[in-house]
Specification:
Blueprint (H helix, E strand, L loop, with lengths): L1 H6 L9 E9 L15 E9 L13 E6 L15 H12 L14 H14 L3 E5 L2 H12 L5 E5 L4 H10 L2 E5 L4 H11 L14 E6 L11 H10 L3 E5 L14 H5 L8 E5 L9 E5 L1 H10 L1 H4 L6 H14 L7 H23 L11 E7 L4 H10 L2 E2 L1 E3 L9 E6 L6 H18 L12
Parallel strand pairs: 3-12, 5-6, 5-7, 7-8, 8-9
Antiparallel strand pairs: 1-2, 1-3, 4-10, 9-10, 11-14, 13-14
Helix pairs in contact: 2-11, 3-11, 4-5, 6-7, 11-12, 12-14, 13-14
The structure holds 4'-deoxy-4'-aminopyridoxal-5'-phosphate.
The site of 4'-deoxy-4'-aminopyridoxal-5'-phosphate has 14 residues, from helix 4.
Pathway: Lipid metabolism; sphingolipid metabolism; Sphingolipid metabolism
Protein name: Aminotransferase class I/classII large domain-containing protein
Family: Belongs to the class-II pyridoxal-phosphate-dependent aminotransferase family.
Length: 443
């Protein structure tokens, strides 16, 4: 396992480049007979994540070294890190990969308590609870917090884990137009009168759920305006920071820090460790009472195996680096690098004539393809030139709003980005997805 940790990313995936092996499948019918008329299928699997210039892998025609523009490895921690990896390995030796127990049945180590304290401090809330999976954090928490007689008002583009959690809660669900505070207000006004005390209205609780950075749009949440509406109607706010925590803000503390929002104004802060921290799992942070309540009642805390200790250590160590507690300024450098990389890449794509969604500072940048039929050609041609991009289409996006979703990392070098821009530009010409005139090049 230790070798794997060094060879692959610590616990989860990512890094600025990686290797892809193409697997060929013989398509067979249910009795194992080849279906002769069908071509053999293939799919690509990630062979190895590495930053070591391919010292250990023999190059064959089936393995290509790719620049990875698809992973959520925003700060580059999902690769062997000089500070994090030795501590993760030490934890692995000390605690093993799994506690094999739920939090309440012996699955809470000192590390789990330290992690919860560390996360609460990082996101600037009084307390936090952690879970082994980000998806489960949303889908298991919402049914504990909300139920019949409660109202969830959800952004129309919220992640599937939120949608599933909301549906599973049994609460009434209303959806407001994506990132549109005036429409949120309209939806709230249909349900309650402005200023009505919580005790005098038809809903036990009202929660408004938004994301910090929308993963398919690359947009920053209009959080200050959303909070103003929530305060006016005394609704609770639930903020999913999966893509913003660690990635934006002067000290990496997410959209609240970036947009100047007091964290006291967000009632429930949720996030995942699978992006900026290069690990796995998720958290909920809030008041001490809220977290205590969740620890007593949430089935995913009571009945699921606790987060893996090496994964927990990876989160603690990466937060220490972000905050400069490792004694270096690598954290600050990573934060300014991701901002610089993101803004450079976004503006260059726009100059080339692509339609790019999202806001400045956001490392998520969807390039609009619109027609889903353009997806295979776009990703195949990029991959041919060793640039790996993620393309997304229905049902993750509306049917005719297919896109290539680029995720920028602090560990991309300027040369990486320039190479990627050249490839994307030529593929964009080939596939016909430059919808605006390109800016003239300066001589
Ligand atoms: N929330 C959002 C907004 C997400 O984008 C994701 C997944 N990318 C999740 C929750 C689930 O997180 P995880 O992949 O860590 O389970």
């Amino acid at each position: 396992t230790t070798t794997t940790l060094h060879g692959y990313a610590p616990i989860c995936l990512g890094l600025e480049d990686f290797y892809i092996r193409r697997l060929y499948l013989r398509i067979q019918d249910c009795f194992g007979r080849p279906i002769s008329s069908a071509p053999d299928a293939w799919f690509d699997v990630v062979e190895r994540y590495s930053n070591d210039n391919n010292k250990t892998l023999k190059r064959t025609t089936k393995i290509s070294r790719c620049l990875n523009l698809g992973s959520y490895n925003y700060l580059g921690f999902a690769a062997a890190d000089e500070y994090c990896t030795p501590r993760v390995v030490e934890t692995l030796e000390k605690y093993s990969p799994s506690t094999c127990s739920s939090r309440v049945d012996g699955g809470t180590t000192l590390l789990h308590n330290e992690l919860e304290e560390c996360v609460a401090n990082f996101v600037q809330k009084p307390a936090a609870i952690v879970f082994g999976m980000g998806y489960v954090t949303n889908s298991a928490i919402l049914p504990v917090l909300m139920g019949k007689g409660s109202l969830i008002i959800s952004d129309s583009l919220n992640h599937n884990s939120i949608v599933n959690g909301a549906r599973g809660s049994g609460a009434t669900i209303r959806v407001f137009q994506h990132n549109t505070p005036p429409h949120l207000e309209e939806v709230l006004r249909e349900q309650i009168a402005e200023g009505q005390p919580r005790t005098h209205r038809p809903w036990k609780k009202i929660v408004v759920i938004v994301e910090g950075i929308y993963s398919m749009e690359g947009e920053l949440c209009k959080l200050p305006e959303i909070i103003a509406v929530c305060k006016k109607y005394k609704a609770y706010t639930y903020l999913d920071e999966a893509h913003s925590i660690g990635a934006v803000g002067k000290t990496g503390r997410g959209v609240c820090e970036l947009l100047g929002v007091d964290t006291a104004d967000v009632d429930i802060m949720m996030g995942t460790f699978t992006k900026s921290f290069g690990s796995c799992g998720g958290y909920i942070a809030g008041s001490k009472e809220l977290i205590k309540y969740l620890k007593y009642t949430c089935p995913a805390h009571l009945y699921a195996t606790s987060i893996s200790p090496p994964a927990a250590q990876q989160i603690i160590s990466s937060i220490q680096v972000i905050l400069g507690e490792d004694g270096s300024n690598r954290g600050a450098q990573k934060l300014s690098q991701i901002r610089e990389n993101s803004n450079f890449f976004r503006s260059e794509l726009q100059k080339m004539g692509f339609e790019v969604l999202g806001d400045n500072d956001s490392p998520v940048m969807p390039i609009m393809l619109y027609n889903p039929a353009k997806i295979p050609a776009f990703s195949r041609e990029c991959l041919k030139q060793n640039v790996a991009v993620v393309t997304v289409a229905f049902p993750a996006t509306p049917l005719l709003l297919a896109r290539a979703r680029i995720c920028i990392s602090a560990s991309h070098s300027r040369e990486d980005l320039i190479k990627a821009l050249k490839v994307i530009s030529s593929v964009g010409d080939l596939v016909g997805i430059k919808y605006f005139p390109a800016e003239p090049q300066k001589q």
